[in-house]
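Help needed: design a sequence for this.
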């Protein structure tokens, strides 16, 4: 079984019928890309540190992207914060 402390505990019955538990130490996994984002979020839900990026950060990045697209389409300067407000009040 995998406990909340990320330690695997293997429970077995001996030939005599007694329950024995062995602990297998956790292996540190280095996540990358989208897997890292999901892992950081799940760690945060378990009381760990906040993820490297937040919803506000992501909305700002998306607003910047949409502002660049709009600016290229219209040939004008676009206010990124106005786009952010349109996206959800970032």
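Sure. Designed sequence:
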């Amino acid at each position: 079984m995998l406990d909340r402390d990320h330690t695997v505990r293997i429970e077995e019955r001996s030939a005599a019928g007694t329950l024995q538990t062995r602990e297998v130490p956790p292996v540190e996994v280095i996540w990358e890309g989208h897997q890292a984002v999901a892992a950081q979020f799940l760690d945060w839900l378990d009381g760990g540190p906040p993820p490297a990026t937040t919803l506000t950060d992501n909305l700002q990045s998306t607003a910047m992207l949409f502002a660049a697209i709009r600016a290229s389409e219209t040939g004008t300067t676009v206010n990124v914060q106005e786009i952010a407000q349109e996206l959800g009040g970032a």
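The mean pLDDT is 86.
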